[in-house]
Amino acid sequence: MTADVRWPDGARSAVAVTVNFDGESVERTADPDAPQWGRFSYGRYGAQVGVHRLLDLFERSGVAATFFIPAWDAERHPDVAERVVAGGHEVAGHGYHHEDFSALDIEQQRDVLKRSEQGFERAFGQRPAGWRAPDGLMSAETRSLLAERGYEYESSFPDDDLPYVVATEGSDRLVELPVFAGASDHHYYRAHRLPAVVERAWQDEFDAVHRAGGLFNLTLHPRGDYGSGRAVRIGPIEALLKTVARRDDVWVATCREIAAHTLATAAGAPLPA
Amino acid sequence: MPPASDERPQWPDGAKCIAAITVDWDGHSLEVGRDLEPVGIRAAGGYSARRGVHRMLDIFGRHEIAATFFVPGYDAEQHANGVRELIAAGHEVGAHGYTHESGVLGREEEQELLERSHAILSDVTGTPPVGWRSPSGRKTHWTTSVLRRLGYIYESSDKDYERPYPTVVEGEPSTEMIEFPNNTLGPGLDDAPLWTAGVAPYEVLDLWKAEFDAIYADEGYFVLTFHPRAGFGTGTPARAHVVDELLTHIRAHDGVHFTRFDELARWCLEADHGFLDPPARIGGRP
């Protein structure tokens, strides 16, 4: 591992608790004409039930999380938007309507980002400082576009243990906060793994990342199908957060805090965006 | 209100938790509805009538619980005596499509099939069904108005909440029809995704116990959905044993009220029990 980021206060590793909101926009993207009844209502579950469970958990754990929210979903659920902000969490971009950015050309991407930023202004009174690709899908131009539009970080690439800095030719700089499957919920639940298995897996994954001195970018979803919103799936998250809290050498922070720290301390030249 | 906290629902008998055991019969209707001959590997639906349903009746009888069976009209035609045995044993029979229609149908065709299945179940059991569950979890904007006209008082297809709430009929929350959401693709409390993924019986038992424990400590709304067929279902011996063990586990908890859906629907439709005020985020959607 490169040693170009040192965590603050002598911490050995860092943890970001992130939530990909993925509400009704997920089902609506799949088929805009289909009514969202029955098997197409798991996104609605996330907005009505799951997200509140996660917020309850973060409240009693004293964790400030980062919510990546499609602006359309944020405006559809003002009660959720309000509660997320009131809880001291960061909100960041995740498409306007959970679009597949790999299928959009640069102008279409720009338009979606603009609409997402406008939606954030209405829902949260501010533009997002960070972004994560819906379903992790994007094109080779997307990071440059984000940097040009003033984003401070993006978090979609599973290509490092540590954050790193990229820059455009025009020298706009952007921090990448890498993700990885082992630290997500849907990786396991889509494969029908049990909560007890996920609990063990996350503990092992975190221990290994901690030893390696990396960023544990925990990625959760409030949905009722592949997400963590169900009561039985809160346990693994709570157990992980307790493990993290017991250690005094882990820096738990929002994505924006980690990005700012990275930008301030990273050594060496940025990579091309 | 966020259901993960705050006030608990007011369940029958002052119970802390309800447990609704729901069984989707899903015999050969499922393959027939897809124009597949129910032979060879596609014959697993035959297990329901031959073995699975009887095994469930035996288990439910020993645990002294009444369950809700959702039976496609086609299967009720093929196995009228088997369906009557359910009624005789004190269980409820609800509607579940004619040949387990899995797509979204045109309005007239959908209405005709709902009416046909309704007539079949009424004839076979001697009592019109009052509940419906979508085969495959699809419905249209007009499904519930047809059901309501046929006298149904509940339906159980949505996945968006963890307590009963007024069904949306003609775009408005109804005071005459209650929605019982269930979790199917979770995977949580539906057997099919688990068995299909190769999850072993002991793991499913662990999962369902954990699901029950979490729900018992939370909303108290436990709805299990499984199938008595072979293949993706729970009818075969080791898998049926999971149900048996789960019921023993649930029985060991205080304040659990086992209920058929029709009974629970009548409870929920009484205004002073608190289920008719739609949660602010639900009414009239989607």
Task: Give a quick precis of the structure.
The complex is a heterodimer of chains A (273) and B (286). Chain A is an alpha/beta fold and 273 residues long. Chain A is 42% helix and 14% strand.
List keywords for this structure.
heterodimer; A: 273 residues; alpha/beta; TIM Barrel; five-stranded parallel beta sheet; five-stranded mixed beta sheet; globular; B: 286 residues; 10 helices; 15% strand; disordered N terminus
CATH H-level superfamily title of chain B? Glycoside hydrolase/deacetylase
SSE pattern of chain A: EHHEHHEHEHEEEHHEHEHE
CATH class of chain A: Alpha Beta
Overall pLDDT metric of chain A: 93
Structural class, judged by helices and strands of chain B?
A: alpha/beta
Radius of gyration of chain A: 18 Å
User: How many helices of chain A in DSSP terms?
Assistant: 10
The separation of the N and C termini of chain B measures 19 Å
CATH topology of chain A: TIM Barrel
CATH-defined fold name of chain B: TIM Barrel
List the uncertain runs of chain B. 1-5, 282-286
Low-confidence runs of at least 5 consecutive residues of chain A: none
Question: Can you walk through the features of this model?
Answer:
The complex is a heterodimer of chains A (273) and B (286). With 273 residues, chain A is α/β, with parallel strands linked by helices. Helices cover 42% and strands 14% of the residues of chain A. In chain A, strands 1, 2, 3, 8 and 9 form a 5-stranded parallel β-sheet that branches. Chain A is globular, with a radius of gyration of 18 Å. The N terminus and C terminus of chain B are likely disordered. In chain B, strands 1, 2, 3, 8 and 9 form a 5-stranded parallel β-sheet that branches. Chain B has one domain: Glycoside hydrolase/deacetylase (TIM Barrel). In chain B, strand 4, helix 6 and strand 5 form a beta-alpha-beta unit. The relative contact order of chain B is 0.19. Chain B contains 10 helices and 9 strands. At the A-B interface, helix 2 of A face helix 8 of B.
